[in-house]
Amino acid sequence: MNTIDAPLDGTGLRVGLVAGRFNDFVSTNLVEGARARLVAMGVADDDVDLAWVAGAFEVPLAARAMAESGRYDAVVCLGAVIRGETPHFDYVAGEAASGIMRTGHDTGVPVVFGVLTTDTVEQAMERADVDRGDKGADCADAAVEMARLLAALRG
After folding, report:
1. Cα–Cα distance, 25 to 122 (Å, whole number)
2. Backbone angles phi, psi at 42, to 5 degrees
3. Is the pLDDT of residue 106 over 90?
């Protein structure tokens, strides 16, 4: 059996980040974690672009624009949807997830889902904290791995 490995080496890659401004106290930590991890994997800081959008619902459209531009090897989508007392959470979280997935499938560019969907602010803060959950860094890992894997698979 042949195994195709995708090294976590970001050297030479260009990565787009899209972050939702709504719940920015969470999104900012996710962005910091993703950026620090990308740089640690060899992505040049000048090769990381960040686009802020209003909230998680708007993330997929900006991610699609980045993916279709041809300038990025991967796009990381970051934000937080925190459950409240209305069904708003279900609509926003579901549509954000669907739009992000569809963007990756339609464009062939790795588009990583880093929109936290939590029941409480505390859960979101813990997952986004760069010293604890650091989900931003996890998403950076996934972006680099998928960019390298798809490059290898496409030969």
Report:
1. 11
2. 105, 0
3. yes
- Whether the pLDDT of residue 92 is over 90: the answer is yes
Catalytic positions = 88
Which phi-psi region, left, alpha or beta, contains residue 112 (left: φ > 0; alpha: ψ -120 to 50)? Answer: beta
The full set of domains in the chain, from first to last, is 25-54+79-144 (3.40.50.960)
Looking at the chain, the whole-number percentage of residues with pLDDT higher than 70 is 100
Three-state SS sequence of the chain: CCCCCCCCCCCCCCEEEEEECCCHHHHHHHHHHHHHHHHHCCCCHHHEEEEEECCHHHHHHHHHHHHHHCCCCEEEEEEEEECCCCCHHHHHHHHHHHHHHHHHHHHCCCEEEEEEEECCHHHHHHHHCCCCCCHHHHHHHHHHHHHHHHHHHHC
